[in-house]
Design a protein that fits this description.
Helix content: 40-55%
Radius of gyration: 17 Å
Order of helices and strands: HEHEEHEHEEHHHHH
Largest sheet: 6 strands, mixed
Amino acid sequence: MFKGKKEIENVLMSLSEQLDAEGTGRIEMVVCGGAALNILEYVQRTTKDVDVIAFVNKDEDGAIFFKKTSPRKSEIVAAAKRVQRDFNLPENWLNTGPAPVLDFDLPEGLMKRVETLTYGKSLIIHFLGRYDQIHFKLFAAVDRGRPDVHYHDLMALEPTAQELEDASRWSMTYDPSDPYKEVLKEFLSKIGYKDVAERI
């Protein structure tokens, strides 16, 4: 369990050192969730893991490709295990659970809005920006169906009506079902955005 920004950054620096020891070369990740929100100081709260949406690969022209797993997966797992041991972390503290979102279109222009930080020699992390966090947090909050950490994170981001409309339309590409749309509209109305609910 990470208590805040400083603890998360200490662990990421240690991961970089372990990757360096493995000789992996530079690893790039896109990170969302509580860890990103803490690092970018949108919230200050505990979080149990670092949520990885994607590993980033680039071709010779610098074009970006997202992958659910890295070609250096075994070295990354080994490095993460050592960090887990050293910091007494949960087994899956480096969590690739959000990666299935890559099966759908990510919000357009996502990589132009990330905040990129480098840890040591071997780790580059692209932290999801506020606009895109609103997309992910809205979908998670509606999916859970009750006030929880995702709901509180969404509210802490203070989304505008337009941002919620954009996020809602994106989330409906992830779950296009009528039942999801009805639950989404009900959620938006409950949090004071009935006008958005009526437009989607």
